[in-house]
Design a protein that fits this description.
548 residues; alpha+beta; Immunoglobulin-like; six-stranded antiparallel β-sheet; five-stranded antiparallel β-sheet; 25% strand
């Protein structure tokens, strides 16, 4: 039989007193999916009943309960709720009352089998408030600062607390290398190396362990903060030891004590000094939003007289984590990915039954910690780096989409970032560091300019944009260039927030070819202007007719 996720049932002093845990095993006679009519799980050895799922016909299914008192397993049956079905003695009488009673019991006792099969083979009738995303954040409109933090804390802080053993099992699902089929994926992805490692190496010296992004020594005392899944990720044992309890931040540019990578087994774009630690670019936003969640969830109250967790630029052991300014920047530059959103959804639905609000609403971060953001983010002009060419739409399936950037060789590419903006939402949908060799290919042109080319899917408009951002001045973001196509936009987040884009006044269509592009050329007066190239796109090279 195919096994599904473990779904512990909390104890209750009455009918639930003997049920400490439940492992669910389910398989139907046909395609493995349970759906259609309601069915009832009845436990012949207890007075309790649960309405747990749907089935098109009596499935071949077993639920195994290990009782604390008996210490043995009992096989129970799933029976469909149909009038012609002959239930065992007493069950038919109960069935007339059970529909109303069960819903209330499940809600009050928390005894529903909530963590059904991740890939949908078993779907629970039980739902949680966190699954209604719009309703979950209802009433927060117009709030900011401390008021928003208090309301968010009330929303997310109440959740199911896991044991340390349950955390191991949960991470194997939440961080599986194949998120589309996490139960059958044999590996997990490590947070600091981004490598896939076997689930069987959990807790082994040559394997991976449970990394607290917000370290224990900064105020985590016991459950629930110590086992909160929003704060836990798989990490290589050796790399985790190197990180220790360093707070998050970036090395000072001139520092000669910065390690890149932060550990010989870490991803190449990690870095660390004696106090700070920077994860891979790909997950910096993930880390920032995890810490923001911790500051909100445990910032007002922590059970057991634990300290109230806070974020600041002056981290203090056992209380304040940081660096806040860096985390705010990472939140903007690395928006939530599909994988991060899926993880958040599964924490809600399968395990803790709460959400990380900063994944659903990254803009909450600035509303809480920087209500009036400094306009140091205002754009400034530079002839040292610019967006030179791009291709975003063509007939049929989009092909060869790219963005090309020209930069003076003297510029530190690790301090330049390209942000892609969605015109419909005004938010960043992709961020790329020019210094990331996995994102950009680099070519040189006669030693005068370096050409950075990223082949990346681009939104097809209207009003989509791209911003080139410099972090050269004390890591404070400055917008060098903010372009758009098919109209202008004024973003609601990221470094270009509140800045109106400059439309290139040209566009591609579904009739464009895969080797078309929009790019800069020079006029007779020497001024650059945007032009359309038909079949002559030159990613990685100067544009046709361009004099540098």
């Amino acid at each position: 039989m195919a096994s599904s996720a473990v779904a512990p049932l909390p104890s209750h002093r009455n009918a639930l007193a003997s049920l400490q845990s439940a492992a669910v095993f389910a398989k139907t006679r046909s395609d493995g999916r349970l759906r259609s009519d309601r069915f009832i799980l009845f436990h012949h050895g207890a007075a309790s009943r649960w309405l747990v799922g749907r089935s098109p016909k009596p499935p071949i299914a077993k639920f195994w309960f290990q009782g604390k008192e008996s210490g043995r397993g009992e096989v129970v049956r799933i029976l469909p709720l149909r009038s012609q079905f002959e239930f065992p003695d007493g069950v038919q009488r109960l069935a007339r009352k059970i529909v109303a009673a069960i819903a209330a019991a499940l809600f009050c006792f928390g005894a529903g089998i909530s963590a059904a099969s991740v890939d949908g083979r078993l779907s629970s009738l039980e739902t949680y408030s966190c699954e209604d995303v719009a309703g979950y954040y209802a009433g927060l409109e117009g709030l900011d600062g401390a008021a928003l933090m208090r309301r968010l804390s009330a929303v997310v802080s109440a959740h199911r607390s896991l044991t340390y053993k349950e955390v191991w099992d949960a991470l194997k699902i939440l961080d599986a290398a194949d998120p589309s089929d996490p139960e059958h994926s044999s590996d997990v992805i490590e947070i600091y190396s981004l490598r896939a490692v076997s689930k069987t190496l959990a807790g082994k010296s040559e394997g991976w362990n449970r990394e607290h992004l917000w370290p224990r020594s900064y105020g985590l005392i016991d459950k629930p903060s110590l086992t909160d899944l929003h704060n836990l990720r798989p990490a290589d044992v050796n790399i985790n030891s190197s990180r220790g309890n360093k707070y998050y931040g970036e090395c000072v540019s001139e520092s000669n004590v910065c390690l890149r990578p932060a550990n010989r087994e870490a991803a190449p774009d990690t870095e660390a000094d004696s106090k700070k630690w920077a994860p891979p670019f790909q997950v910096r936003g993930d880390v920032a939003r995890s810490l923001m969640y911790m500051a909100v969830s445990y910032g007002m109250y922590q059970p057991g007289e634990g300290p109230h967790l806070k974020l600041s630029d002056s981290p203090i052991s056992n209380r304040e984590m940081g660096l806040l300014s860096t985390l705010l920047k990472w939140n903007e530059f690395d928006p939530p990915s599909k994988a991060e959103k899926l993880r958040n959804e599964r924490v809600c639905r399968l395990y803790q039954h709460n959400r990380n609000p900063f994944i659903d609403h990254p803009e909450y971060a600035n509303l809480i910690w920087t209500q009036t953001q400094s306009r140091s983010l205002l754009t400034y002009k530079s002839s040292m780096a610019w967006i030179n060419e791009f291709h975003y739409d063509n007939k049929g399936k989009d092909e060869n989409e790219f963005v090309e950037i020209m930069a003076d060789p003297s510029i530190d590419a690790t301090k330049l970032m390209l942000l892609l903006y969605n015109g419909s939402t005004g938010k960043v949908y992709k961020s790329l560091m020019l210094g990331d060799s996995k994102a950009f290919a680099v070519t040189d042109h006669a030693s005068r300019f370096s050409i950075y080319t990223a082949f990346v899917p681009l939104q097809n408009g209207p009003r989509d944009g791209m911003a080139l951002v410099s972090l050269a001045d004390d890591n404070q973001p400055k917008v060098i260039q903010f372009l758009s196509y098919e109209g202008t936009l004024t973003p609601t987040d990221g470094p270009a927030r509140g800045i109106e884009s400059v439309d290139v006044n040209l566009q591609e269509t579904e009739a464009s070819g895969p080797h078309d592009s929009l790019g800069l050329i020079e006029t007779a007066s020497g001024e650059p202007k945007w032009a359309q190239f038909k079949g002559t796109a030159t990613p990685g090279k100067p544009n046709v007719g361009q004099r540098l």
